[in-house]
Design a protein that fits this description.
Helix 4 runs antiparallel to helix 20, helix 7 runs antiparallel to helix 19 and helix 13 runs antiparallel to helix 18. The protein is globular and about 65 Å long. It is an all-alpha fold and about 425 residues long. A hairpin with a 4-residue loop joins strand 1 and strand 2. The protein has 21 helices and two strands. The relative contact order is 0.15. It has a two-stranded antiparallel ribbon.
């Protein structure tokens, strides 16, 4: 690695941590808001819908900002959106409106979509192309660290001072509303702290010089139409695989607290602490997976992990108690390498079309808005949250297909398919 890239890589890695932290507060927010607003499972998944819909809306504009104004401008733009959304949690808590929380989450996610659209391809460019997937997995390991840390911190700062349900039922309407308002106010401190941190980091990026890796690419930018990039078959597969991966991850991580409470009769706080164990296992999986890629090709390791998770989903459906919890924790381990590996394989050999390809893969994160709705409907219809795990099970099958076949670099033309298989 070039020494001049060390500082940019460190700064980029902080972004991976920050968006991981924001995403992994959502599993704490979901039961918190579900309780405060008396929501069904389907209604509670609107948190994920608001977050991941922003990826669909913002990914292409983020790619255009990156291409027109450069990586630094796009990063600062993302941090500003992120900070504004976090600040809006304060008036959302004051007004006690679920829709206000969803708007704030949407704006946060606009920032996250911008940061992910920029940071993922940027990280692949700061070193050898041959080690891009490994380097991206290493950076994403800090995202995994946030996956472990955020639920633990969120549980202690947000899921606190909750009034027992039995006591709430006995309260007059006015007293119940006041108690729930006091609980909702617990989000103010964490999100205000995030706002301040994000503003500081945005200022740092303004004054730090980043490598101009985009200049060399822009000279040969393709003049083809927008959708013609889908002639890269591996990119099309990568978009589909990322859609279903993020959908599966969201079902498993965001709904973990609800799942644990249901199958193991735990309290929200107990389940919240177990969610941090999922994060720890996810983090360990990132480091172990990055190490294994020295000896096993990234696509093969991805495929093996996807098959294992398909089997584990059966356990999540048919087991109960602590065994069901252990099964879901194991799924977290084998999900750990999936996002960065799918991303790196999907944009492989795109050349000057890398920015657009990156935007399309980030857009596919909208799977996190759509797939959990299916999980919620299946859970509510069966009155058993475990049945929802049929949804991520199907997702892992599709990821396995991408890993073993769809990752191959194939460029479709009108006359023939031109294959470059590695």
């Amino acid at each position: 690695m070039n020494k001049k890239n060390t500082l940019p890589i460190i700064l980029l890695t902080t972004l991976f941590f920050l968006w991981g932290f924001a995403h992994n507060l959502d599993p704490i927010l979901i039961p918190h808001l579900k309780r405060s607003f008396t929501l069904s499972n389907v209604q509670a998944t609107l948190v994920d819908t608001a977050v991941y819909a922003a990826y669909f809306v913002m990914a292409i504009p983020a790619g255009l900002i990156m291409k027109r104004f450069g990586y630094k401008s796009a990063i600062v733009t993302g941090l500003v959106f992120f900070a504004i959304g976090c600040y809006l949690f304060i008036p959302a808590a004051d007004t006690q409106q679920y829709s206000f929380f969803l708007i704030a989450l949407f704006i946060i996610a606009c920032g996250l979509a911008t940061l992910e659209t920029v940071a993922n391809p940027f990280m692949t460019l700061l070193g050898s192309p041959e080690t891009a997937a490994q380097r991206l997995n290493l950076a994403q390991s800090f995202n995994g660290f946030a996956t472990m840390l955020a639920p633990a911190i969120g549980t202690e700062l947000i899921l606190i001072h909750s009034t027992p349900d039995e006591q709430l039922k006995l309260m007059p309407a006015a007293a119940r509303k006041a108690a729930l308002a006091a609980e909702a106010a617990s989000v103010k401190g964490p999100y205000m702290a995030l706002t301040i941190i994000l503003v500081i980091i945005a200022v740092v990026f303004l004054f730090v010089k980043l490598p101009n890796v985009q200049a060399a690419e822009s000279k040969s930018t393709s003049k083809r139409g927008f959708l013609s990039i889908l002639r890269h078959r591996h990119l099309s597969w990568g978009i589909a695989a990322q859609f279903f991966y993020v959908g599966a991850q969201t079902c498993i991580i965001s709904l973990f607290v609800l799942y644990a409470v249901s199958v193991a009769n735990l309290t929200d706080r107990e389940a919240g602490h177990l969610a941090s164990i999922c994060g720890l296992v996810f983090l360990a999986g990132r480091f172990i997976g990055t190490f294994l890629m020295k000896y096993i090709s990234s696509n093969r390791l991805l495929g093996i992990y996807a098959i294992i998770n398909t089997v584990l989903c059966f356990g999540a459906i048919y087991l109960s108690g602590s065994y069901a919890i252990y099964t879901v924790i194991a799924i977290s381990f084998f999900m750990s390498i999936m996002f960065p590996t799918i991303f790196a394989l999907g944009i492989k050999d795109l050349g000057p079309e890398r920015e657009l390809g990156s935007s399309l893969i980030i857009m596919s994160i909208v799977g996190g808005a759509i797939v959990p709705r299916a999980f919620g409907y299946l859970s509510d219809a069966s009155h058993d949250i475990r049945m929802g795990y049929y949804v991520p099970m199907v997702c892992f099958v599709i990821i396995a297909l991408f890993a073993f076949r769809g990752h191959r670099v194939v460029v479709r033309t009108n006359e023939q398919n031109v294959n470059a298989i590695y």
